[in-house]
Amino acid sequence: MKRTSVRSAATLLVLLAADLAIVAALSVSRPGQANGFLAATTTPAATPTVTEAPAAEAESAFVTINPEHGFPLDPFLISLQGGGPVAASTLDAECAGYIPAHPTVIVDFKGTVDLLRTFFYSDGDTTLVIQTPAGDYLCGDNMNRLILDPTVEIAEPVAGRYAVWVGSKVASDLIPGFLAFTTRTDMDASRLVLGSLVKRAAAPPFIPMRDRLLNAAGRVEQAIAAVKNVAALKAGGEPVTQVFTATGELPAVELQTGDTLCGGLVNIAPTYVFDWSGDVQGLTLFAEADGDTTLLVRTPDGSFFCADDTDGTRNLNPWLTIPEPAAGRYLVWIGRVDPGAPVSGVLTLTEAADAMPAALEKQ
User: Fold this and answer.
1) What is the pTM assigned to this prediction?
2) Domain check: are 152 and 237 in the same one?
3) Considering its fold, how many domains does the chain have in total?
4) Sign (positive/negative) of CA torsion 14, 20, 26, 29?
């Protein structure tokens, strides 16, 4: 009887060792570490047999969010996969779904805001778990019965480290989508329209030169027809200023009929039009605005001058000089770089060769 008991115990020890070896082999599988400021890693393939609790300190995508310095876009989006092998309830009994063994994203939150809302926007049924700097866990599931995107809201979030796990309702699912952070009270998963963040129309990868020039020539004709006021400027006069607000959505390049390619978004109607007369060595134009702008000028012979930043990128206000300007009509457009907001400022025309716009630094 004693010999039989020893043999059974030995057998159990061997089986237990084998089980531990399997769990150990699975547990060392980790997502690769993300490189770069806004890099995001994808979640590894799900292994439903892994059941150990997730690690709070882990190799994960790392981002810094400081709303006081402004989001590049609000909501701020990270493309990644949700889902994993570990039950979210191992972190908190109230949390649902299956999450990766390590945080999907780690956020270093700075600044002060009234609200930080986090949600995952996808085509699947996903969940969220967020660990606050205090070590508490916040769970997010369906926004409502019709919208399955999980949401977590934090009122007056404190600065510090937030670990975020994106899970799925089924352990074997890996669901691609966008992890969104927003400080806007009017933004959630039901209101997000991806196309509204970057208003860029689809275009063919290549437009034949002849077609592009014909289209541009037609737009210039529309621009000329839209002119209502024309200023008369003569050589030897005082500097001229014109207040403007840039609200355009047409890429400036689509107005140009030459080889020069200019940037910015403009309206068909010119910002300023003038008839020039007299002889001068050069005519300088520049804009001083509350945002990043570009400058496009069509001369009487149909050629174009354009400018973006002054002095490299150290001054976002554009500046250019037209040498020995010919008599005739000049069309001037001020373009904006950011399509999300209008830009206001002042256009200046002067014969002073050393005149420069005030510096507008990149935010």
Assistant:
1) 0.47
2) no
3) 2
4) negative
Strand stretches in 183-229, DSSP E: none
> For residue 246, is it within any domain?
yes
Same domain, 272 and 139: no
pLDDT in tens, the chain (363 residues): 333 333 333 333 333 333 433 333 323 233 333 332 333 333 333 333 344 555 555 556 678 888 877 677 889 999 999 999 999 999 999 999 999 999 999 999 998 999 999 999 999 999 999 999 999 999 999 998 888 999 999 999 999 999 999 999 998 789 999 999 999 999 999 999 888 887 777 766 655 667 777 888 899 999 999 999 999 999 999 999 999 999 999 999 888 877 777 889 999 999 999 999 999 999 999 999 999 999 999 999 999 999 998 877 789 999 999 999 999 999 999 999 999 899 999 999 999 989 999 998 876
Residues 39 and 148 grouped into a single domain: yes
Whether residues 336 and 259 share a domain: the answer is: yes
In a domain, 27, yes or no: no
Is residue 137 within 8 Å of 92, Cβ to Cβ?
yes
Residue 144 to residue 335: CA distance in whole angstroms? 42
Query: At CB < 8 A and 24+ separation, what contacts does 24-28 make?
Result: 26/50, 27/52, 27/101
**CATH number where 181 lies:** 2.60.120.380
